[in-house]
């Protein structure tokens, strides 16, 4: 009995052992299968603008006409490694062109990728480098500034032009050096109408102004250029814009400056007599002060950038009162005018009568009588003048007496 139970227990244990063995077997094979699938998957990354390292004798030769960078495509199963190689800061590989065994002339050189892990594949685009090799030559050139002077706007004058340094060292190939005509300041300035103080790159050019391959030392130059131009004084004219507020008939503008000096080419100055100062009066119902920008026409400059404007609204009621006051003034003055007219007419009649009497007397008198008459008239005039003077003195004395009495 005991023997049968023992045999049954052994069978059960055997079955359990077989079950766990099979379980472990399939589990291990499944992991290996998954790892096999994972290891067969590849990833791609592209490193853009990788600098090309060129091996050559830089003391003896000068090279030109080649691409400076290449794009490199990387392939591998390890994504982390690919990302590291694609990153400029963490990559280990480099793209190399070997010219050490080449002579002068133009060559197509294959690009090689070095220092890359064996588990990563790589290809470069382009995969060859076209390069020209020349014997090296070095010369000194004075910096030519004629191009800058030619860019002066019409009407402007060059007061001062200075570059520092004035001389530059140029290194290039022997054949290229023969074509270098001058070294100029490279700038994108089309016209110069203001002072310049800045640093600019230098460029070696041929007689036609075309850029040539060369190494310059220094590569930049400090430029100080002072120019002047004709100027003209023009008036500042306020110009009302916007809608006037309700009840406002007009606005009074007082500018802090009434004129400005504009500078530029003479032909442009001739067309300008004033600068407009636009003033927006929208919603202004009380005295207001604003700062308004002053804009000069294109290619002209103004010595005033802005002006302060005092804006005073004129209302309809005040305008009506002023009009009424002006109309009443002539009515009040009418009687006085009529009296003056009557006095003038009477005086004219008296003058006419006197002239007629005098002329008739002159015609009737003989020469002796005329002389006597003239003396008499002169005496009469003297007496009349004396009487007028006495009368005036009496009036003055009378006024003084009245003033003393009032005191």
UniProtKB/TrEMBL annotation:
Bias (Low complexity) ranges: 354-364, 373-383
Annotated protein name in UniProt: YbbR-like domain-containing protein
Keywords, sorted A to Z: Signal
Signal sequence extent: 1-30
PANTHER family documented for this protein: CDAA REGULATORY PROTEIN CDAR
Residue span of region Disordered: 318-407
Biased composition (Acidic residues): 318-329, 339-353, 384-407
């Amino acid at each position: 009995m005991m023997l049968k139970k023992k045999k049954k227990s052994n069978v059960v244990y055997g079955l359990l052992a077989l079950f766990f063995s099979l379980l472990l077997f399939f589990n291990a094979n499944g992991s290996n299968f998954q790892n096999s699938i994972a290891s067969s998957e590849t990833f791609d990354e592209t490193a853009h603008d990788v600098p090309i390292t060129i091996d050559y004798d830089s003391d003896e030769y000068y090279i030109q006409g080649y691409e400076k960078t290449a794009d490199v495509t990387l392939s591998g199963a390890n994504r982390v490694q690919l990302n590291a190689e694609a990153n400029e800061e963490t990559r280990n590989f480099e793209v190399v062109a070997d010219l050490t065994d080449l002579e002068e002339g133009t060559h197509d050189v294959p690009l090689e990728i070095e220092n890359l892990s064996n588990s990563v594949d790589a290809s470069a685009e382009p995969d060859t480098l076209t390069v020209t090799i020349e014997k090296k030559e070095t010369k000194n050139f004075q910096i030519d500034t004629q191009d800058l002077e030619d860019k002066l706007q019409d009407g402007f004058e060059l007061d001062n032009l200075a570059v520092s340094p004035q001389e530059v060292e140029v290194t290039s190939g022997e054949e290229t050096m023969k074509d270098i005509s001058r070294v100029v300041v490279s700038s994108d300035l089309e016209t110069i109408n203001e002072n310049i103080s800045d640093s600019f790159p230098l460029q070696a050019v041929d007689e036609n102004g075309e850029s040539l391959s060369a190494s310059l030392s220094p590569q930049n130059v400090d430029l100080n250029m002072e120019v002047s131009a004709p100027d003209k004084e023009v008036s500042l004219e306020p110009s009302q814009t916007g809608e006037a507020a309700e009840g406002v008939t007009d606005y009074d503008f007082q500018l802090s400056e009434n004129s400005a000096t504009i500078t530029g080419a003479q032909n442009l100055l001739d067309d300008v007599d004033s600068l407009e100062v636009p003033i927006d009066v929208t919603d202004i119902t009380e005295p207001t002060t604003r700062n308004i920008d002053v804009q000069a026409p294109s290619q002209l400059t103004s010595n005033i950038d802005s002006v302060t404007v005092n804006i005073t609204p004129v209302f309809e009621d005040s305008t009506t009162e002023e009009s009424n006051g002006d109309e009443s003034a002539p009515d009040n003055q009418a009687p006085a005018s009529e009296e003056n007219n009557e006095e003038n007419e009477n005086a004219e009649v008296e003058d006419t009568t006197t002239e007629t009497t005098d002329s008739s007397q002159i015609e009737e008198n003989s020469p002796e009588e005329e002389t006597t008459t003239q003396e008499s008239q002169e005496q009469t005039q003297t007496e009349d003048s004396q009487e007028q003077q006495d009368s005036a003195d009496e009036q003055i004395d009378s006024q003084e007496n009245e003033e003393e009495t009032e005191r």
